[in-house]
Structure formats: structure tokens, C-alpha cells
Amino acid sequence: VSSAPDVATFSFTVKDTAKDAKNAQKTINEKISKILDGLNSLGIEKKDIKTESYTIYPKYEWVKVKSKKETSPDGTEYYPGNNNKRIQVGFDVSQNIRVKLRDLEKVSDALTIFADNGVENLYGPNFEIDDLDGLREEARLEAIKKAKEKAKRLAKDLDVRLGKIVSFNDSSSGYQPLYRDNMKMMAVG
């Protein structure tokens, strides 16, 4: 059973850093709102847009601090200890979103929306088949049909009679599709 991809998926991150978490969240929300408006204009439904993660982390930097000058027993002046200190300078906020695009003609438009709104870590488009379970079911039914035909031929050739099925094994999980270009590369390599 084969099928052409019928959806494209994207995953991307929107980030911001600010002195306080509230302002960073506000900026993230504004950026996301613009992206969602753009995706909505492409006809992408809300059910096809999912937040995968949302993180807020304090941001730290190392700064030099003046140490108190001391004098050693032999009279040498020195600054004891480490003169660097880690201080919190703000918050990093990021939101990772996954989008499923059902109209493959609009992939370029979606990429433009992402680029225009400063997304980071864009992953995609990944062209996929939306209903893999349906294809697996179709393949399983076809395999059963072929197995029955083969069993009938073998029974006839062996002059035996078929009985009830006593065992069945479906090992279709974990299948990864191999595309023609990948197969060529494997043959060459």
C-alpha cells in the first residue's frame, strides 16, 4: 500500500528575553498572536496548531565585582577569592509550537509567515501522511487476503485441506517508509 504525503508539519520556537518574566511573556504572546493570525488567514484550523512546550528560565550573567584589597603577612597587597559573581539579569521565555498544514499549496506562504515573525529553530516542512492508521489497516487487509490466496494454492499443491487459523502475527509496528531517492543513496553508498 502506498500513498503520497497529504499534510506538511512544522515545528518552531518563539523566544524573548526581558528583565522580568511578565514583559517577556507579553512579547511572546504578541509574536505568537501575529503568527496565529497569519496561519488563520491560510485557513489552518486551531485543532492543527498545538503548543508543545512553554518555558521560563532565569537568565544569569557573570560580572566582575571589586574585592576588598588585603595585605599578606609579607606586606604584598592582593584581592582574595574570585572576583566574578553570577547575577540574574532577566528571564528567557520560549514557546515551541507544532503546526499541521493540510493544503500543501500553502507551504511557501506558511514559511513566509514564520520568517516575517522571527521564529527560531524552524523544523519543517515535513511531508507526512495524515491517516497512517488507515493505510496500515488497508495494508493488513491486503496482506491477509494474499496470505489466504497463498495458503489455498499451497493446500491444493499439497493435496491437503485448510482448517481454522490457529496463529496470527501482525508485526507492522515500527515501519519507516523508504523513499526512492533514499534507496538510491543506500545502493550507491
Description:
With 189 residues, this protein is of the alpha+beta class. The chain is elongated and about 110 Å long. The chain has helices spanning 21-41, 107-116, 132-158, 180-188; strands spanning 7-18, 49-64, 70-71, 77-78, 84-101, 120-128. It has four helices and six strands; from the N terminus they run βαββββαβαα. The chain starts with 6 loop residues before the first strand and ends with a helix. The relative contact order is 0.21. It has a four-stranded antiparallel sheet, covered by helices on one side. It has a two-stranded antiparallel ribbon with strand order 3-4.
Q: What is the compact description of this entry?
A:
The chain has 189 residues and is an alpha+beta fold. It has helices at residues 21-41, 107-116, 132-158, 180-188, and strands at 7-18, 49-64, 70-71, 77-78, 84-101, 120-128.
Rg, alpha carbons:
30 Å
User: Structural class, please?
Assistant: alpha+beta
Regions with little confidence, pLDDT below 50 for 5+ residues: none
Give me the side-by-side strand order of the main sheet.
2-5-1-6
Q: Round the mean pLDDT to the nearest integer and report it.
A: 85
| Apparent shape | elongated
**Separation, N- and C-terminal Cα atoms:** 27 Å
Overall number of strands: 6
Give a short account of the largest sheet.
4 strands, antiparallel
How much helical structure, as a percent, in the residues? 25-40%
What is the count of DSSP helices, taking H or I runs of 4+ residues? 4
Strand % is: 25-35%
Q: Topology as H/E string?
A: EHEEEEHEHH
Task: Furnish the topology, listing elements before pairings.
Elements lengths: L6 E12 L2 H21 L7 E16 L5 E2 L5 E2 L5 E18 L5 H10 L3 E9 L3 H27 L21 H9 L1
